[in-house]
Amino acid sequence: MNLQKNKTLTTIALILMLTFSALVVSMPTANAHTPAWNIKTFAYLSVAPTTVGVGQDAIVYMWLQVTPPTAEGAYGDRWKGFTLTITKPDGTTETKGPYTSDPIGYAWSIYTPTMVGTYKFQFSFPGQKLAGENLRPGFTTGQAYINDTFEPSTSEVVSLTVQQNSIPSYPNTPLPTDYWTRPITGQHTDWWSISGNWLAAPLNKFARYTKGPDSAHILWTKELTFGGIVGGEFGVTGYYSGNAYEGKWAPPVIINGRLYYNKYPDDTYALQEPTNTYPRTPPKTGFYCVDLRTGEELWYNSEARLSFGQVYRYDSPNQHGAFAYLWAANVTNPTMFRVYDAFTGDYVYTVTNVPGGAFSTTRVFGTDGSILNPVINLQKGWLALWNSSAIPELLGGQTGTQNWQWRPYGKTVDGNKGYSWNKTIPSGLTGGINFVWAGDRILGSSGLGRTDAWLNLGTTNFTVWCLSLKPGQEGTLMWKKDYVAEESGVTLNMATASLDDKVFTLWGAETRQFRGYSLDNGEKLWGPTASQDPWDMLVSTAYNIGYGKLFCSGYAGILYCYDVKTGQLLWTYENKDPYYMEALWGGNYMITEPIIADGKIYVFSGEHSPDDPKERGNTLICVDVATGKLLWQIPFYMSHWARNPAIADGIITYLNIYDNQIYAFGKGQTATTVSAPQTVVPKGTGVMITGTVTDQSAGAKGTPAISDESMSEWMKYLYQQFLIPSNATGVPVKLTAIDPNGNTQDIGTVTSDMSGLFSIMWTPPVEGKYTIIATFGGSESYYASYAETAIGVSVAPSPAPTATPTATPTATPVATPTPTPVATVSPSPAPQPEAGPSTDMYIIAAAAAVIIVVVAVAALVLRRRK
Fold it and tell me: Which helix H or strand E contains 673, and what residues bound it?
C-alpha cells in the first residue's frame, strides 16, 4: 500500500471514530468508594466496508461502551490490550494486537485480505484495573474510578466478504478544461493540484499548484492610482510610479479566487525606522478585496494594512476544516498583528509579541497552514519554533471538549506563548538562518558577503551549517562545513536553495558566477560557472529554482537557465532592445521578478528608479522552462519596489507602472452564437450559416475572440491604446449538423475574422429539420463555447408541366393544268407554356435574409467594441 493511501485510510478511520464518539457513554460522576467496584463492559466491532476485493483494505474498529474515566485530551488512562482474532476462509486464524485505545475508547486497524471467501472478526478486551496514569495536573476528572476493575468482554463475530474483483473506488472528477470558478465543490477532490493560493511569495517564487497563462490574454485591468502620461503643459511627464522605495502594489494575497492588496504605498523604511533622525509617517491603512477573475471590488477594509495571508487547517476530535485569514501588522508596532476573516474582512483576533514581526525573513507555513518561525540564539545555544496555532488561548478552553475547539474570536493573545518547542543546539555555530523548510531543516551560514563595505573586501573563509526540524530530531546538527574562499575579493552570497533537488547555491557578485553544494552534507557539487554579463554584478540580480533548473536574471536583460544539480548552462534568453538607445543597459531591457509555474517562467522588466519618461519597450515575458523558447510577451513595466507579482488559479496579477493599473492575465471565457435562415428552404437550396465568437472576460466583454498568434497585439490595442492590428485573425469554429435521421454531418471548419464573425455556405442534402452546432474548441487564450440553431428543408418543387405546341398545318399542292402560283399559308405562332415557380426567387430571398443577419451581427460587434 502506498503512503498516500495509508494516510487516506488513517484519516477516514479517525473521522469515523470521532463521529462515533458521541455514541460512547462517559462514566457518571462518582465519589471515592471502598471497596473497589467491578464494572461490566461491552465490546463492539465493526468492519468497513463489508465487501472488498482481494488485496483491498478494510478498516476494523474496536471500542467499549465507556470511555476511560480519567481520559481528557492527551492526559489520563487508556484502554489497553485490545486483541483482534481473524478467521480466514480456509479456517486458519490470525491474532493481531495488542492495541491501545484513544481518549474516547476506540482503536482501529487496517486489514488486507489475501483470499476469496468470508473472513470472521472478533475483538476481545482482557479487562483492566484503572491505574490513574498520566493524570492531568490539577484536575480530578474520573479519578474516583481509580483501582476499579473494568471486566473483560468479547464482541460479536463480524463477517467480511472478499471477492476476486476489486470494488471500484469513487471516480475522480477530471481536471477542468472548461471555464471554472470558485468555490470548488467538495466532490472534486483532485482539483487541489491546480487551485493553490498565494499567501505570500513562496521560496523561489515557485507556484506548484496552479496552471499558468499560455498567452498574453488579459482578463481585466483596474486603476490603483493615476498613471501614464500627465499630458498638456507637462509634456511627456508621467505620474509617479513609487518604484523608489514606495511600492504601490503590496503584498498581494490571493485566497480562494479573491485578490487582496493595500490601497496606499508601502514605505517599508517608515516601519523599520519609526524613530530615526527624520521620523517617517507610517503608511496609511486600507486594503481591497476583489474578484480574481473579474476585478470586481467585493469589499474594502479601512482599518488595517495587509501583510500576508493564511489558510489554517484545524483538525481535532470536534472540528475539521480550514480557516482563511488575513494578517495585518500594526503600522506603529510591527510585532503586533490583527487577524481578519478573508471572506468578509471582519476582525477576528489579535496576536502580540510575534517574533520577527512584519519583517521576519524566516517565516514559513507548516503543513497545516500554521505560521512557523524558527527563532535561534547561537550565543546561548538554543533553537525554538514559534507556531501561530500553538497559543493555548486560541482554543475554546484548556479542558474537556473545549480543548478541541478553535475559538480565537475577539481575543487578544500573547505570542510569547506560541512556541511548540525549545531545543539546545550544538555550540560553535555563528551567523544566522538563510532558508527554512517546515518540518525538515534550516540552513544557516556565517562569513558570507562583504567583510568591509567601504573597501569592498569580499568573502574570505565561511561556514555553512544545517539543523534538523524533523519531529524527534529538532535542533540536531545535520552537518556543518567550513570552506576556504576560492578567490580573494569575491563577495560570495547565499543565492537560493531547493529541498526538492537537495542543492543550495552561492553567487559571486564580482565574477558573476554560481557554485552549487549538497543540501545533505555541504559538499561542493559544481562550479564556478562561466561568468555572466557584467551588468549582472548589480544588486537586482534574481535567483530562482524550479523544475530542477536554476534561473538567473538581472540588469543584463538575459535569462540564464542552469541544471541545478550539475551547473550546466542549458539555455539563455536575451531581452533585446530593437530600437536606438531606449534600453540603456547593454542594449537589453532588464528582466527580473520571475514567477515559475506550469512549466513556464514569467519575467518582468523595468528599472529600480526609472527616469521620467520611462524607457519604452519593457515587457512581461513568458518563456518555456524546458527550451528557453519565448511563448509570448506584452508591454509591461514592473513595480520594482513592491516586486510582488502573484499567481493562482491560472491567473497572474501585477501592477504595471506604465499606467499604474493592476493587470490580470489568464484564460478567458467565450460566447459563441450561430444563426441560419429561419424560413424553410426547398431541398437543393444553399443556406448561409453565420455567427460570432466573442470574449466574455470582464475587461473586454463582447469583443471579438482573437487567435493566440495575434493576442499580444490585440491586447495592446484593447488595453494600451496601440493601433488596431491590421492582420489579426479570429478563431476556428467547427460546424456540424444533425440531420432529420439523427446522423451527424460535418459542414466544415471556418475561422472568424477580427470582428468576431464567421460564415459558411452549405446545402442540406435531405428534407426535414436540421440542428446546426457551432463549436469553438478553445485555445491557449480562451475556454471553449458552442451554440446551436436549426433550419428546415422542404421537398423540392416539382417542375411545371410543359404545354404541347399545336402542329402547324402544311398546305398540299393541287395539280392544275395551268401552273398557277399558290399562296403559302404561314403557320400560327406556337403557344408558350405558362410561367411556373422559379428556383432563382428562393435563392434571392435566402440571400436577402443572410445579408440582414450579417449586417445585424456586424452592428452588434461594432457596438460592443465602443
Answer: strand 670-675
CA–CA separation, 556 vs 558, rounded Å? 5
Helix, strand and coil in the chain, % to nearest 5: 10, 35, 50
Closest by alpha carbon to 549, among 475, 610, 625?
625
The pLDDT value recorded for residue 613 is 84
- Reference 510, options 526, 530, 491; nearest CA is 491
Rounded to a whole number of angstroms, the distance between the first and last alpha carbons of the chain is 61
Instruction: Extract the C-alpha cell encoding 78.
Output: 487508556
Residue 106: its H or E element: strand 106-111
Q: Which residues, in sequence order, are bridge partners of residue 592?
A: 604
Q: Which amino acid is it at 487?
A: E
Lowest mean pLDDT across 309-323, 463-477, 628-642, 804-818: 804-818
| Residue 805 confidence (pLDDT) above 80 | no
Q: Is 712 left (phi over 0), alpha (psi -120 to 50) or beta?
A: alpha
Sign of dihedral through CA atoms 190, 194, 195, 200?
A: positive
Question: What is the distance, to the nearest Å, from the Cα of residue 796 to the centroid of all Cα atoms in its chain?
Answer: 58
Confidence of residue 702 (pLDDT cuts 50, 70, 90): very high
For residues 768 and 795, what is the distance between their CA atoms, to the nearest angstrom? 9
Burial class (CB in 10 A: 0-12, 13-18, 19+), 419: middle
* Separation CA 731–CA 753 (nearest Å): 8
State the alpha helices, DSSP H only, in 382-501: none
CA distance linking residue 280 with residue 267, whole number of Å = 9
pLDDT at 858: 40
User: Alpha-carbon distance 211 to 552, whole Å?
Assistant: 22
pLDDT band for position 839 (50/70/90)? very low
Output the nine-digit C-alpha cell for 149.
Answer: 476493575
Give the position of cell 536583460.
Answer: 557
Residue 313, pLDDT score: 96
Going from the C-alpha of 63 to that of each of 43, 102, 105, 136, 720, the distances in angstroms are: 6, 10, 6, 23, 68
> In degrees rounded to 5, what are phi and psi of residue 298?
-95, -40
Q: Within 10 A of 433 (CB to CB), how many other CB atoms are there?
A: 19
With b for 16 or more beta-carbon neighbours within 10 A and e for fewer, the 479-507 pattern comes to: eebebebeeeebbbbbbbbbeebebbbbb
Q: Which pLDDT tens digit goes with each residue over 340-387?
A: 999 999 999 999 999 999 889 999 999 999 999 999 999 999 999 999
Question: Which domains are present in the chain?
Answer: 3-163 (2.60.40.1930), 428-497+504-517 (no CATH), 670-795+842-865 (2.60.40.3880)
Whats the size of the chain, residue-wise? Answer: 866
Are 641 and 539 within 8 A, CB to CB? Answer: no
**What is the C-alpha separation between 652 and 597, in angstroms, rounded?**
10
| Confidence tier at 860 by pLDDT (50, 70, 90) | very low
Distance (Å, whole) CA 706 – CA 724: 12
Q: Name the nearest CA neighbour of 84 among 74, 97, 71, 73.
A: 97
The CA-atom distances, in angstroms, between 61 and each of 43, 133, 160, 161, 198 are 11, 24, 13, 16, 40
How far apart CA 241 and CA 92 sit, in angstroms, is 79
In which band, very low, low, confident or very high, does the pLDDT at 149 lie, cut at 50, 70 and 90? very high
User: What is 786-800 written as a DSSP string?
Assistant: EEEEEEEEEPPPPPP
Dist. CA 767–CA 765, nearest whole Å: 7
Name the one residue in this structure whose C-alpha cell is 442540406. Answer: 764
Tell me which of 203-217, 455-469, 622-636 is least confident.
Answer: 455-469
Give pLDDT, residue 855: 37
Compute CA distances 282 → 279, 285, 302, 718, 736, whole Å. Answer: 9, 9, 15, 38, 64
- Name the one residue in this structure whose C-alpha cell is 564556478: 528
Interval 736-745: pLDDT, tens: 999 999 999 9
Q: DSSP label at 84?
A: E
